[in-house]
Design goal:
By secondary structure, the chain is an alpha+beta fold. It folds into two domains: about 110 residues, Beta Polymerase, domain 2, CATH 3.30.460; about 100 residues, no CATH class. The chain contains nine helices and five strands, in the order βαβββααβαααααα. The longest helix is centred in the middle third of the chain and has 27 residues. The chain is globular and about 60 Å long.
């Protein structure tokens, strides 16, 4: 795994965090790091992200991470809501990031992002037809289906409570849903999507209309001050 310098926060995300991991599941890692502040003073900016595979790991530079999270990106945002035992690196500024995690939230962005990501998963399922495909494709279809349901369920829960619960209360429900869809019941996924869209439309939002950008900006300024070295 390629890990950049100045990691502020990192941990194990994905299926392990949701409680959906099986014996053959990959271990996915996500993190946020700070580039040296003076690296932004020249003609070119430092890399926004550092990505490696086997093991799978993605690290976003603090500014990019903040912008992705402000946009409601579900994958990026979950780093701030992990169960305690899944964090691997926690710098004081990483703890500060966890402390302002609600500042990134807004009702419209949560709704649009979670339903948008779920729609992407559904289109993958819909393109595969009636389930008469190889065992490997069926396995991937089951995975996409259970993450489709997860995105809808977690997104709505976040929307109405203001808190992202990553660890699923009933993982079996999601696993069984994935198997049913992979067996050819794509209409089950279609009905589920329609149901959650309706529930989003009628549910009272516990989130503000806009994120707290000043709080996020203040955190990023502290990051830049901490990693500034005069030359």
């Amino acid at each position: 795994m390629i890990e950049p310098a100045n990691v502020l926060l990192s941990g194990i995300v994905g299926s392990t965090a949701y409680g959906l991991a099986g014996p053959g599941s990959d271990i996915d890692r996500l993190g946020v790091f700070a580039a040296p502040t003076t690296a932004f003073h020249g003609l070119a900016f430092p890399a926004d992200s550092v990505v490696s595979s086997k093991p799978d790991a993605t690290f976003h530079e603090a500014r990019r991470y903040a912008n992705l999270a402000l946009g409601g990106n579900p994958t990026v945002s979950e780093l701030m809501w992990l169960p305690e035992d899944l964090y691997e690196t926690r710098h004081p500024l990483g703890d500060d990031l966890i402390g302002i995690r609600t500042a990134f939230l807004s009702a419209k962005r949560v709704r649009d992002s979670y339903l948008g990501y779920a729609t992407q998963q559904f289109k993958r399922l819909e393109a595969r037809g009636d389930g008469s495909f190889s065992a490997d494709t069926r396995k991937r279809t089951a995975k996409h289906a259970r993450h489709l349901l997860r995105l809808c369920a977690q997104g709505l829960d976040l929307y109405v409570t203001g808190h992202l619960r990553l660890r699923l209360d009933d993982p079996q429900r999601f696993l069984e849903f994935g198997e049913r869809v992979a067996a050819g019941d794509v209409d089950l996924a279609r009905r589920m999507m329609a149901d959650y869209e309706s529930r989003f439309d009628t549910a009272p939002a516990a989130l503000p209309s806009e994120p707290d950008r000043p709080a996020v900006e203040s955190w990023l300024h502290r990051v830049r001050a901490r990693f500034f070295e005069a030359t």
